[in-house]
Design a protein that fits this description.
Blueprint (H helix, E strand, L loop, with lengths): L3 E5 L5 H8 L4 E5 L3 H8 L10 H7 L9 E5 L10 E4 L14 H11 L7 E4 L7 H14 L8 E4 L18 E5 L2 H12 L6 E3 L3 H31 L4 H8 L21 H11 L5 H11 L1 H15 L8 E5 L15 H10 L3 E5 L5 H8 L3 E2 L7 E6 L4 H4 L7 E9 L10 E2 L1
Parallel strand pairs: 1-2, 1-4, 2-3, 4-5, 5-6, 7-8, 9-10, 9-12, 10-11, 12-13, 13-14
Antiparallel strand pairs: 6-7
Length: about 425
């Protein structure tokens, strides 16, 4: 039987993977968002992860048997697939509890077309046990098939870095796992066909799930450490970046920088691990302490900006401030879980009027997600304060002084500006 792959979810993770597999296999990309499907079928990727010409090169107009990518929201079009790869988001709710709803819905979708011999592979970041204890029961119940007898499961955690054109999906080593040793080898062999960086076959699905969730938890804790250093060194009137540069001359010093920790991974994944630990009666101290510190940085940045304004004699209440950037990271349109909104919210509590300029973010998406008005155009006015929140390449050459009043404050969250800065992390 020839390999036919369905990718469930065509976002930042699913589309690059679907495009890559489509160079070697017959792939059907499935997404419930009709607008997303329409754009993709025109060769347009709004996430900017795949260049339009690269996408068009693998697109098929019909679900034929030849290799390539066919995008659809019609469930019937994935019935003939024998590999189903789930790449949907795994967010947290307003209480920072894991929200597995997208994963349940995707599992229900796959279960409706699941057949004997099929393999369902999950790429979504989860805590250990989710694939076999949460997703598989959904597959069994709706399909009526028996796990590891009629169908099988695999896990291969995504390692997509949005906006990174150097470390693309094929160039990042892939961890793989299967629900049986034999299926593990099958899953590993499948990814080996397209992942030039190689693969690592984990002994169990739970090991692979745990490996993924600790990758970002480790980064979160390290960033929390340097964020705490930044708070200390600011009190001591020492430049944090100068300290990190000096310390970095030692061969084994880790090169982390202070900043806002948002996005769909680092600011979320530690909560998944913490949830599972708490279910087992263990309260994770370091993991949650790191999360609390990093989640506090938006309010801290706002307080530092206000202090700088007061020192320069700027009347805070009623002042107008320009926020440069609202995406969660530089040079990408992704606004998921961006912590810039925490800075904006805290500044607004002081009575400051915010103008948000981001050439990458979609204003409609920002408005929908956060009820914040943003613009893709450089404002034609001068401001009492300017905050560089995201280091987009466009901002590096921006004439910031032209946007400032005479006693305006310039605060650099990213620590990349060299001159005339009134504060930085």
């Amino acid at each position: 039987m020839s390999t036919k792959i369905a990718i469930i979810g065509l976002g930042y993770v699913g589309l690059p993977l679907a495009r890559l597999f489509a160079t070697k296999f017959n792939v059907v990309g499935f997404d419930i968002n009709q607008n997303r499907i329409n754009e993709l079928n025109q060769g347009i990727d709004a996430t900017l992860e795949i260049e339009n010409e690269v996408l068009k090169a693998v697109l098929k107009e019909t679900n034929s048997e030849k290799n390539g990518l066919f995008c659809t929201n019609d469930l019937k079009e994935i019935e003939s697939c024998n590999y189903y790869i789930v790449t949907v988001p795994t967010p947290v709710d307003k209480h920072n509890k894991p929200d597995l709803t997208p994963l349940y819905r995707a599992s229900e979708t796959v279960a409706k077309v699941l057949k004997k011999g099929d393999i369902v592979i999950y790429e979504s970041t989860v805590y250990p046990g989710v694939t076999e204890e949460e997703c598989v029961p959904v597959l069994e119940k709706i399909s009526g098939l028996k796990f590891n007898v009629d169908f099988f499961a695999g896990y291969s955690p995504e390692r997509i870095n949005p906006g990174d054109k150097e470390h693309t999906v094929d160039k990042i080593l892939k961890v793989t796992a299967g629900s049986t040793p034999e299926i593990g080898i099958k899953v590993d062999d499948l990814y080996k066909t397209v992942i030039t960086a190689g693969t690592h076959l984990a002994p169990t699905i739970k090991v692979a799930e745990a490996a993924k969730v600790i990758e970002n938890s480790q980064r979160d804790i390290n960033i929390a450490f340097v964020n705490e250093l930044a708070k200390i060194f600011n009190l001591l009137d020492i430049n944090t970046h100068d300290v990190l540069e000096a310390a970095g001359t030692k061969w084994n010093f880790l090169p982390f920088k202070p900043g806002l920790v948002g996005g769909h991974c680092i600011g979320v994944d530690p909560y998944y691990l913490a949830q599972k630990a708490q279910e087992k009666g263990y309260h994770p101290e370091i993991i949650l302490a790191g999360r609390r510190l990093n989640d506090s940085m938006g309010e801290y940045v706002a307080s530092q900006v206000v202090k700088a304004m007061i020192k320069k004699g700027v009347t805070v209440n009623g002042a107008n401030l320009l926020m440069l950037g609202i995406t969660f990271k530089e040079n990408c349109p992704d606004v998921r879980n961006t912590k810039i909104v925490d800075v904006i919210s805290s500044l607004e509590e002081y009575g400051i009027k915010i103008t948000t300029y981001d050439p990458w973010a979609n204003p409609a998406e920002v408005q929908h997600e956060y009820k914040i008005k943003s613009t893709n155009e450089i404002p034609n006015e001068k401001f009492d304060a300017v905050v560089l929140g995201v280091s987009h390449k466009e901002f590096l050459n921006l004439d910031i002084p032209s946007l400032q009043k005479n006693n305006s404050v310039l605060y650099d969250v990213k620590g990349i500006l060299k001159n005339n800065v009134d504060g930085k992390l």
